[in-house]
Amino acid sequence: MDQRKVLVTSALPYANGPIHLGHLAGAYLPADIFVRFCRLLGREVLYIGGTDEHGVPITITADREGVSPQAVVDRWYADIRDSFQRAGISFDHFSRTSLPIHHQTCQDIFLKLHKKGLLVKKSEKQLYDPARRRFLPDRYVVGTCYHCGYAECSGDQCESCGKPIDPLLLIEPKSKLSGEKPEVRETEHWYLPLDRFQGQLAKWLGTKPHWKENVLNFCNGMLKEGLRERAVTRDLHWGIPVPLPDSEGKVLYVWFDAPIGYISSTREWAAQQGDPELWKTWWWDKDTRLVHFIGKDNIFFHALMFPACLMAYGNYVLPDNVPANEYLNLEGLKFSTSRNFAVWLGDYLDRFAPDPLRYYLCANMPETRDTDFNLREFQAHNNNELADTVGNFINRTLTFIERYYEGRIPERGAASGLDQEMLGRLGRIAGELGGHIDNFRYRAAADTFTEFARFCNKYFNDKAPWEARKSDPASCATTLNVCCQAVYGLSVVMWPIMPFSAENVWTQLGLSTNWKDHPWQQDYAGKLPAGHKLGKIEVLFPKIDDEAIQAQEASYKGGKTAPAVTAEKDELPGVIGIEHFAGVDIRVALVKAAEAVPKSKRLLKLTLDLGPLGERTVAAGIAGHYAPEDLPGRKVLVVANLAPRKVMGITSQGMVMAAVDGEGENEKLALTTIDGAIDLPPGSRVS
Ligand SMILES: [Zn+2]
């Protein structure tokens, strides 16, 4: 294994709201598991984090709440740091980008690039909100993505296809401040000509065949399209001032500033160690393995833009790996901070222990494709795998020793075939599991762990010590001795995934709870000598009951709880469970009126009667297929619980269903109607 020192970073969370489980599974838990593994393995490792405290959404929150941006980030920095601590995310240092040390670091890098002539000043066109009389930062603009057609695309990056966005190219742009169409005006900004680094980046990426496929595919796609220059400054009053004359009102672009936060956080750490230059032994040493853990929406900045900045500066080590995760969804839908559709980490930790969550997310890690967080599955993992398998083996072993051997580990005699098989597995577990973690295969790591615990239980059953105790006491003693060593082995390989439980097992075994006393690769079979006294025994993983699950569900389902679904889920991507479908409210609607929408070839504005749900206005893209006068009196099907959205100035409160084939000129379309069914009143449910 590669024993070079490792500098690990997790994407800086944005100090504008709490952490949810989607964040945790993306960039924090995988990093923490890897870091803890490195520590036990004896690698020199430094785990760096912090909060990203600049940028436009923070000013939006501050404006909305009538407080300063600093007050917003102070609150969320404390909240985020606290949640991470409670979840066991073990940063060596957790800083924040609003600190002077970070401002200095960023300005230094900006000035060095400027001196080297690597920044280009350009007069650029920017969107301006005449109603509010200010330039609009990218995130103050929303429109339709020109790559993929996503309608709620933000002006900086498309949430749907992940590509960076030029807000001037957005289709039908609108100001988030006034809701009006912005105008285009001139302003001056500094750019990093990323196109000049294209060759260097391509060559460097060519040396990374071991990277995850999703990351390489994304980068190669961007390189194929050709990299473009990117603005590194913005017109905004909250952020790091541009350190040049005549730059009043301009700050560094938050995406230039945020990754540099890893460097400044390391500098702050070094200063606290009493050696302010110590950070250079990490960032300026080519033998450092730099590993950035991120979510897939951050690939562009970590695998292309930040490396280009580091190349431009010189001295710095470039990332050795960027293991980006896909998304964790919540019961089939995206986590949404704005709609409060999320399991908040702090809220979760008020109800449950951190380790069952860490285990479930590890087993369900979105490492190669999006995965789903489901509370019922979480409950099943806890109750079946942790409580009934892992916890059961540990508990039955320790209580047996307490009851029949006065809590002291019995003598190991001659090993039978079964004993040797068990000891053989125990000798291999660290290598197998470590190989998975070292290669960011978390799902396989969780599987290997649980499979080993299953084998331990089988060994206990096959040896039947409760019978052998009378018929063959020596064999019984050997079994319990071997089981104890296996409990110890389980606890060590458990620590990266479930540190709190591992430390609990060490207490129960009467051992030190300091991880430094429990190295990864060692002879677990010889750890506990005969006669060693156990500590106080307790249940490691209590079962989680339905009531607790329902209470957590209610927190994001508005008090309503979904029916328990136990049917096996198909593993095919795109297949949904019945509870997902049940969330879609389809109704019969009677068309009361229909009219053309000015300047739109596609849209008709429909007034619909949904019976008990009242009247709705819906914009439907059916203009080329139906004349407005043909529609009143017809009964159509409509998705009634879609969030309202604005289309061409109309607030559309639902979606009319239609069958479609082809696109553009060749599009064939038929409304889904139930015209014949006169007995079905408007508002009837479709299921
Ligand atoms: Zn897109």
UniProtKB/TrEMBL annotation:
A GO term, aspect molecular function: ATP binding
Keyword Acetylation attached: no
Subcellular compartments: Cytoplasm
E.C. code: 6.1.1.10
Reaction(s) catalysed by this chain's protein: tRNA(Met) + L-methionine + ATP = L-methionyl-tRNA(Met) + AMP + diphosphate
Motif ('KMSKS' region): 334-338
Cofactor note: Binds 1 zinc ion per subunit.
Stored NCBIfam families: metG, PRK00133.1
Protein name per UniProt: Methionine--tRNA ligase
Organism: Candidatus Glassbacteria bacterium RIFCSPLOWO2_12_FULL_58_11
